[in-house]
Batch of 2 targets.
Target 1
Amino acid sequence: EAQVTQNPRYLITVTGKKLTVTCSQNMNHEYMSWYRQDPGLGLRQIYYSMNVEVTDKGDVPEGYKVSRKEKRNFPLILESPSPNQTSLYFCASTGSGRANEQFFGPGTRLTVL
Amino acid sequence: SQQGEEDPQALSIQEGENATMNCSYKTSINNLQWYRQNSGRGLVHLILIRSNEREKHSGRLRVTLDTSKKSSSLLITASRAADTASYFCATGSLTGGGNKLTFGTGTQLKVEL
């Protein structure tokens, strides 16, 4: 089944404790992206990757890092999480032949205390 | 930055009625897409309309695009209780590797029996 998976689905952590949210897709998509969703603000892009070893900042990249060592994986790293990073996070991927239609993961609900 | 703004923010209708949601945007686009999100879950792609198209249909969905007014509308005909969800418009641009989507803040649709 074609899908985007994220882990963990739920995470409660404390300020400053480094964490990684994994994202994996099995559709051989080149383009992957991370979003955060906050009430009243919709989805905002954090980082995106056009292909392996090619990443770039989205609209709200501060406090986040990403890497793209393999085509299928695109982890989101919070080196020193802060309470303002409490949010619902989505990973998405797009194939080059499917102009812009994005396939979303199920989401990761992160709470930083 | 917010590109799409949906209107209304919330809509409540009876089953069988039609639901219309509007989206306005600010800059030039390559395409516009509509996504659906059930509470707390990932977004699901509904329909894509390109900037050179004016209307598109998919099942009970009808999307229009007016690039001169920078606006789009999503019509769901003969609504069902299962259509209850949040609906987001997203504008696709040629920046960000050609796959950048900018989402609006969404319309919460509730279809009552």
Note: The mean pLDDT of chain B is 91.
Target 2
Amino acid sequence: EIVLTQSPGTLSLSPGERATLSCRASQSVSNNQLVWYQQKPGQAPRLLIYGASTRATGIPDRFSGSGSGTDFTLTISRLEPEDFAVFYCQHDAIFGPGTKVDVK
Amino acid sequence: QLQLQESGPGLVKPSETLSLACTVSGGSISSSSNHWGWIRQPPGKGLEWIGTVHYNGGSTYYNPSLKSRVTVSVDTSRNQFSLRLTSVTAADTAVYYCARMPGGLFDSWGQGTLVTVSS
């Protein structure tokens, strides 16, 4: 069974800064079927990125995904106040532990 | 726009059975070759997939760690799918989400319902 590891656990940044989140898989992710979600407190997760790099409907272009094989990255080019949240990667119904992006 | 809504008791006693339903509106549960799934999140913790059912009810998939206690089923006449989790303990206390699961991802989620296991 695949294991997903996310780093860092917490990322403290200011609005306007660039955020780089990592998701590493214990084995190669088939067909690059790696998914990213954003979850704000008290809300359900929201689909951001699927297929490692395709933005879901309505997701701003400041969010981008990249990577292949076992190493994947979610980048937020310039953090907006509403972007601060927890981000999870997922493959084949397995979720990573999450990265919290909070205000520095 | 597709909407999902979880319903069921918010409090379940230890050793009893947790039962939740997810009502789908804005679309038919059997309108496409979708799967439908349940995910849970203990307070302050991460997401854990519980199980998935195909819209025709013929195929189910369960988290191996929960498989012996879980049943996920679909009722197309009610446009609903359901979760049963038996022999619950305090470790099953969580927010339970239902979601549509096309192609291995979760693209539409319910708002979630908190289920507390306590006597």
Note: Chain B touches chain A through 19 residues (CB under 8 Å).
